[in-house]
């Protein structure tokens, strides 16, 4: 029996991550300025084509006879079902919608390794049919259980053993995080950062980059994919904050209070029971054109595990806005967090950014029902924008789902009275919460990844 | 706008809690040795009677026409419904059972206050119909939302304002914790410790005790109730452990792996769809006599919010065993934790003790299906038992649900090969996880409360 104990905290890791974050222009692999061209080259090296198809042309997918649920004949992958939501007691908190059920937990894993004493991260040029430019910088491994257990009989997932065989590497982060609660029912993925000392075989679709290089690339639109961003958000970098508006305990108490005060009742229903939506041969959509459509695509790909397939996807009807409002207290930047109810969350609320919405779904600026702080964010002067880029949401399920991502410090500080459900926390507090699941939603994690990689100009 | 920041960690609190834990024989109120007599006196001061009644004698409760679900005509309190569970893929992971659905989040709150520089905790002598001795030491406030919003039109819940009005006191702990996952569907309660500087009016059913006094009282059988124990488990005491078998990150990774590897599908069904159970006028039970029965009681009480009522309860068919096996590595005690699937957990698994079962439900010692480590725990020599007491589970829902609670250090260390789903962690690591919800189940929290209060003889 081994009796060698481990220190509970790896005190050296924060320094090593800081060193990696400081390397922003070059590393052991490509220079930062070369990555976009390399992605374009990888894009050209493969044969990719995504086309919208009618539901009738889906292969292996069909609407179940009694429920109308859209599912694959293998019973795997995912299904499109219905959700009936009731938040609070009144009719204004009641809605129905299609939702994706995908109970299996996927792995989003980034492999890390030191080159010349600097941590690098193995990023993949990966095609996903929903991305506007198809191919983006992705985690080393991005695999559903169906992928890595070979349900669709494709090629093996490269490098997956580093994440599925415990003890092979050193785990730097490993946490189940929720995915989009408005589109997925109870979906979570395993976000992993694993460091290896082994020789890692090279592959033309992969590149080693420092944390700082990835941070620089997060300034580009549609370059670093969502799966990479959520893993990067879980990177245990150090934030030198000894104090905050709320102590860590007060913050946990605020969150517990938010989770307790919302009474939600989310009920799974059949897709054909969903009211307010209509189906035609090409889509399931709302007559008012809001939110999203359920559509289908055919995919031809050379670098994916299988060469061609068809699948349903969700396509939002407008571009989203994801933004944190920043304010300094005693000079220390704080983020305005929002405890959000989303229909697909496992547990009531998670912390989202200050603003998370699709502006087209809401009335005119200043009108009733306009999300709080949206206009403040959209009207910010350029010099008050600390971070800005357009990013895609998960390209394996969501088609052309782009979000305008912002970190904004308004000229005029907000008053001390915040609307219900909002509170100030520091980037370090947000990062500490993201060590655990069920706290920080995927949109807030996209913005957090810009902080853990040093992309936000504080 | 306030700009005064708080330190993120309250560095003085650990010392104050240690001082309170050191006071074990007396405090500002009763001496420890006087508490049992005081409880007996309070018991005599009220008029309590609990009687088993047939379902037909329930007032306001009835079986719904189509589902057979047992519910109250107000739509409040709780319902007894059915659960269909599928864990993994095989028939051995499949079962159905009655389960309690109570979506509202209750408050379990203990009020703290310094007397002569020592923290004391306001404990209540509270009657619950399911407790074998009816009246036990309880949190200051133990209230469902129905209680404190007065759905059953009783008296106001004493001291509840300290917990429902944020900012009135200083929050020492505040976390949503799961309740019994085998009996409750997705139930959680808000566990709160709040310190006040205000004058607190005295009440004959309440007493101020130090953490050490409560720890001493945890050696008595059926004296400190479950609701008090789970809040005490969340007390942020300091454990001086800088190292452990697994670093904190490795432990989180183990837990994430356990949560990921279990594929569970829990489906709510109607009570009259539950197979393997039968109903007669007095109970819903299994023909083989295993697990529990659904029964009804009539209650006469003088000190509860309403003077008399009837309600359904779950009555286990045998006494449970809840035990942690302890082993020292480099002299540092570690607990053998078990990642348990329970049908009512919101998220797959939580950390339970090494042993959690009702031995009567399982074959003879050494036989197949006997829970791992059960016989090791039951056969431990008295000098290897570091903690032992019989405690009741929640007396508001569970009738005569007693558990034999143990912390045992076997003479012969276990081998380094553990069964799947088990791992060693330190008491401090367990306590750190209990700052967050969804990690530590209620049975493990009972044993943890014996550690946070200094009741375990390390």
Automatic annotation (TrEMBL), chains A, B:
GO terms for molecular function: lyase activity. It is an enzyme of class 4 (lyase). It comes from the Bacteria. Its EC number is 4.2.1.159. Residues 33-234, 251-450 form the dTDP-4-dehydro-6-deoxy-alpha-D-glucopyranose 2,3-dehydratase domain. This is dTDP-4-dehydro-6-deoxy-alpha-D-glucopyranose 2,3-dehydratase. Keywords: Lyase.
